[in-house]
Amino acid sequence: MATVINMPKLGFDMAEGRLIRWVKAQDEAVQKGEVLAEIETDKATVEVESQESGVVRVHLVAENSLVPVGSPIAILGTADEAIDVEALVGKSGPARPAAAKPASPEAETVSLRGRAETPAAAAATGLPAGPHALEDEGDGKLPAGLRATPVARRLARERGLDLKSLSGSGPQGRILKSDVESALTGSAAATQRVQLSKLRAIIGRRMTASKQSLPHFYLTADLDAGPLMALRADLNSRMPQDQQFSVNDFLVKSAALALREFPNLNASLEGEEIVRHGQINIGVAVAMDEGLLTVVARDADQKPLRTLSAELRQVVARAREGRVRPADIEGSTFTVSNLGMFQLDQFTAIINPPEAAILAVGSVRQEPVVVDGQITIGRRMRVTLSADHRVTDGAEAARWLQVYRSYVEHPVHLLV
């Protein structure tokens, strides 16, 4: 029996998505769980899996089409059944590609990875297919095999720099903004006007709304990171390089266990009700060329540290390669933003709606400390909790930080 596949809702505030690429062609079989298409949301380009098995009988939208959430995008069925498109989706028929709509800065495509032109895409865009095809990433055409982020391409165009002369440092050799800036080093200083990328614009709007509408308050604690660093070094000395723990693994696990005791910090405000979430899903901020992307460690309080570490490695790798899945970036209930790798002592973070709190983590640093009346060298780390005063208060947030401190300073409890 034929089934209509609709544009999925991949975020609580998502209204539309851009279908970047069909992974499964028409008349190609697809199994439940296989990637059906790549869809660009406000946050990232997401690999969308098929929810059932069948044959992709009809693509209802062309690649690079902007489609409202819930609108039909494809029809699945058996290989030999008759498909009545009008009966299934109405008289509107397939959607037109977004290229047919008037261009605007708000509709600019920001893809987290380049894509090779396929015959299906060539048919939709009118470009030649095959080894000499051109890539069209929404901001001009590039020779096949040359990949660059929209920001990098725009900056190079504005400064008259030929991208073919550069080597990209991004995933699969993709040219990043930093590569273009490095190539321009030494040139005469000039005023520049750079259009905001779609992701940066969305981040700006969301953070502005959060800062203006959520009554933030902040609490900072200075933690003894010595035991955590010692345990991590001991564990990693016994493990293969590709399976070793990061400092962030311990911080995420500590936050998840502390949230068990304080459900108001693992909550959202909906109208006049506080919704305490049944799952503890920790968002982890990942620095991308286009901006910060939050990936999610699901049920972080329930998983052994080694399992949590492995899953985080995989989801962060997918994010940096531009092939995230919906579950990778949606559903976080609390966020940990760790900028310790940038040698920052401390900072404050803006709450990521609809969450009620976010933890900002600074560097682990060596400094003199007093232990039992004696001055010695210790390893310290400052963390700052930003919380929504509508959902929690200073006393409750301070108690959460006390429990968090106990896990960080006695990390052996994270292993049991």
Q: How would you describe the overall organization of this protein?
A:
There is one protein chain. This protein has 416 residues and is α+β, with helices and mostly antiparallel strands. The protein folds into 3 domains: 98 residues, RNA polymerase II/Efflux pump adaptor protein, barrel-sandwich hybrid domain (OB fold (Dihydrolipoamide Acetyltransferase, E2P)), CATH 2.40.50; 83 residues, E3-binding domain (Dihydrolipoamide Transferase), CATH 4.10.320.10; 200 residues, 2-Layer Sandwich (Chloramphenicol Acetyltransferase), CATH 3.30.559.10. It has a 6-stranded mixed beta sheet, sandwiched between helices. Strands 1-8-6-3 form a 4-stranded antiparallel beta sheet. About 12% of the residues have low confidence.
List keywords for this structure.
single chain; 416 residues; alpha+beta; OB fold (Dihydrolipoamide Acetyltransferase, E2P); Dihydrolipoamide Transferase; Chloramphenicol Acetyltransferase; 3 domains; 6-stranded mixed β-sheet; 4-stranded antiparallel β-sheet; 10 helices; globular
CATH topology of the largest domain: Chloramphenicol Acetyltransferase
Q: Roughly how many Å is the radius of gyration?
A: 24 Å
**Overall spatial form:** globular
Uncertain ranges: 92-140
Largest sheet: 6 strands, mixed
Separation of termini?
49 Å
Order of helices and strands: EEEEEEEEHHEEHHHEHHEEEEHHEEEH
The count of strands amounts to 18
CATH class of the largest domain: Alpha Beta
Mean pLDDT: 83
- Count of helical segments? 10
Widest β-sheet, arrangement of strands: 11-18-17-16-14-15
Oligomer type: single chain
The CATH architecture of the largest domain can be named as 2-Layer Sandwich
The secondary structure category is: alpha+beta
Total domain count: 3
CATH superfamily of the largest domain: Chloramphenicol acetyltransferase-like domain
Strand content: 25-35%
Q: State the helical fraction.
A: 25-40%
